[in-house]
Every structure is written in C-alpha cells, then in structure tokens.
## 1
Amino acid sequence: MSITVAELLAEPQLGLSLLAGSDGLQQRITWAHTSDLPRLWEWVTGGEIMMTNGLSIPADPAGQVALAEALVAAGASALAIGEKMHAPELTPEFLEACDRLPLPVINVPYPLPFISIARSVAESSLLEESRRLRQTARIYDLLRLAGPRADQWQALVQGVAAQLDARLYVVDRRCLHPWHPSGEALPAELAGQLQPLIATAPASGKKFQWHHVDGSHVLMMDVPTHDNALLLVLPLSEPHPDAVVLLHAASVLGLELSRTMLALEDQRRLGAEFLAQALEGRYALTDLESRLTSFQLPAEKFLIVSISGLDEESLATIHAELWRHGLANVSLRQSNTLHIILPPECTEDQLRHTLPDDARIGMSRPTGATGMQRALQESLWALGTAASTGRTLVRYGDGPSWLGLTSMEEGQAMVQRLLGPILEYERGKQPDLLTTLKTYLDHQRSWQKTAAALFTHRQTVIYRIRKISELTGLDMAETSSLAQLWFALQIHQTMDPQRN
C-alpha cells in the first residue's frame, strides 16, 4: 500500500514539518515529482506529492489560493516547499485555503535533497508496484478473453470497472451520449454536473483531470486514438485507481473500439456495394430482403435519406456517427451526395443531432424493398426542396413544394416534356447538349463565356443551342423558354443519382 502524508511526515530521517492542511494527512502518495515550472498542477496525474523550490508559487494571495485549488482539482496529495530557497512568503489566505481544501503543505528543511523524499515514497511503493503490475495484466487479459458476444463492449467495460473498483462511462465529449451504442448512458443528473467541466476542458493535451462533483471525485481522461471519446472514472473506494493503471485501462478500451471500428468500416464497404447494386435493380426481391436483414435493417419498412453539404471528413465518418447513436444503416456516396438507408423509427432530431449543422437532408416516406428506387427519388426530391427553400431537413410530401410542383411525378413529367427529346437524342452519346445548356444558362447566355468554360469554339456552342431549340420546339430567345428549361434542368440534376 502506498505511503500516506502522515507516514511520510513521521519519517525521522527527513525532518519534514506540516505547515497547513492537517485534514489531508491520510491522503496517499503514489509518487513524488519535482517541478519549478509555472502552472504546477499541469504536471499532476493524481496522487503525487509535488516538490518545488518555490519558483512555481505566486507572490500574491489570490495567485497562491488559485494554485492550491488547482493542485487539489488535479489530484495532488500534498505540496512540499524547499526551505530557504526561492519561495515567496506564504500568505494567511493561502494557508487557510490549504486547511479548507484540504491540501497538506510540507516544509522541506534546508539542505535536505528532494531525492530523499522521492526515495522514501518509492521504497514504500514497491509492494504497490507489484499490485499495479498484476492489476494491469488482468485488465489486458480481459481484452484477450473478449469473445464475439452481443454485449462484448459493455462486458469489457464492466470487467475493467471491477478491476478498478469504480464506475466507468465512455462518452462522446460533445454530447455526453455513450460512445458505443451498447454502452451505459451517463445518468442525467451527473451529465448536467459534468457538462460545464467538459465544455471548458481542452479536447487534447492534459490526459488526466480530476474533479469534485457532489463531494465525490470524478476523473476525465481521453481514450487514445479516438477523437472525442472520453473516459469517466468514478472511484467507489480509497485509494483511487493508480494513474498508470488508468492509462492502461484507457488503452484497452481504445483497442477494443479500434477493433470495432475496423469491423464497422468493412461493413460500410459491403453496404455501399450492396446499395449501389440494389438501386440498379440487380437483386431479386427475396435476395434484397435477405441482404437488408443482414445489415440489421427491416426489409418491410425503412427510410432513404439523401444528404448534401457534408465535408470530406463527415462523408467518411457519418456511418459511424449514426451507428454510435443506435441507428443501423447502409450508405452510398455518389459524388457529393450521400444516400443512406435507415430504420423507420429514425427521427428528425436524431439526424440533426448526428449530422453537421450545415448539412441539407431529404427524407423519403417509409417504404419496403419493392419501393427502393422510388424512395431514392423521393429523398432526392426532398433534398432539392431543402436546398431551394434553405431548410435543413425536408420529408417528401411535407412542407412547401419545390419550384411550384407538388410531387415527384409532376417533376418527372416536366423533365420528360422539356428535356425528353434532348435525352432521347443523346442516348448512348456524350451528353454535349445538356452540358452546354446548363453552362450557357450558368454564364448568363454568353456565347464567349460558355465556349471558354467548355474549352470549345464559340460557333460550336451556337450550333448546340440551335439544336436544342430544334429538338424542344422552344424559341431560345424567349425568356419563358429559358425559364422552363432551367426549372427542368434543376429537377433532372437533383433526381438523377448519377449526377449527385
């Protein structure tokens, strides 16, 4: 067992004396650390006696009190100050704060070297080190023994918690939801108390942060290799879990999360291949239903959601974000649009919570396996409505219509009537006419700018626009004709998945 502050003070050869903080004499010292750097508390991982020659101690009362409070918050067991060195006068406010916190403040007589204190702490910790090694080995063994159980993650967390004699939660620091969908949710009252502490804590840097919540200690530490994964440790007994053992525990949990994320990435690739083939109609109905079920999606009813406005990082990770919030999914990226199949119980609030604030979302009506292609068209129609109205999320059939049309069928009819002759003419060819029409309209009907954008001759552009007029029967000099073609182009581009 590690030495207490009282036991260290009782070492006759050291000659130490207590200046303040007598209520903390039973606090255990896991290590002795020397530092004269500013912000002394940043070098505390929990349980140390911090030894300084005084350069770290402010001269003013407020600064000294802030130092004491920060050391206790970081988990320091005691503060030892070298006598006749560089420490300023310790103020009454500082000593009173140390009594209140409590933080034992120890006078180190001159010329006792700090190494003597460190040696006493180390010698008393030999048995503790042996216990720590056995405890660390048992924690790693939990990972080795982890099997393909449905509750594998939570079983591992509970096993590690038992070894540490603590309650453990692994949460997303951004929202405090469980980082793993099978993880235990943080109690609402505790989440409310921790939220301001997490909001003001750095996302990286200091790995250990002890806090006092309702008279109890709570440790916050990062889970290695996983952004925003935060381990919360609530000790159930004294002494608190050793800092080194805690680091190994976080590493074990991080390894299991990495193993899970690799499997999830494989599933994402398989899901993308499946969805691409399904949307092309390559599956028989029974095969389609079987594959949907294998991805834990109900074949009889699901949603298709189309999303735009995502950056590259979000496009690559949104499947994991959805999974972590309990939403089974398969996704397919086509250019800058992401199409996702989701369970029918997925709510708008869940999507808004999971997706970036600037994402545009179109949701189909609930459908079954036989209506997958139509559901994709509905989600694209809703996405077009979201983009044109500035709304974040639109469900097909809800809210204001897009471009004055009330349904996808009306949009398809408009595209067929206006662009059908062009599409038929270009079938099996390079789509020069549609590309030229879009570029011509985007460049305010300038022959020269359109030719430059298409890297072609001005006369070629003139020929193509005349050909469009011939095929559609529209006068390209009429504003009404151009407006109709522009509307039809917007609908065609939105509802053709290959163009998104």
## 2
Amino acid sequence: MDGQTMAESLSEQELAKRVLRAEQRLDCMETTLAAVTDEIDGVSLSSRCSKCEKSLLLIKDGILYCPNCGDGHSL
C-alpha cells in the first residue's frame, strides 16, 4: 500500500459508506444491549464511564458501576 493506511487508500465515498455501516452496527448493538438489560431484572444502563470512557455504566441493586474498569458507587 506504499505506506498508506487503509483509510487513506479509500475514496471519500467509500470511507463515508464504511462510516455509515459502522454507525448502523453501533445503533443495532445499542438497541440490542438496551433490550438485554430490560430482560435482566434490576439491571439498567446509564451514561459512559467518566473514568475509562470505554463502557456504559450499569445500574444494579442501587450500585452504578463500570463493567470495564470496575469504577462505581452507590446511588
């Protein structure tokens, strides 16, 4: 690829299509995750973890916690 990254070798239109597909997959995963938490009694989702920013926070049994870094506190 002559030192180019994959993104650099794509046309703007191809890159836009890839971004759109990634956004659609993300929307699908978020919808699925929200439905799964609705099925699990007493579990819900909150905002993104402010400590690691790599996961949404879970709320269970009055505790708000990050499944990625373990940060959390009681509500």
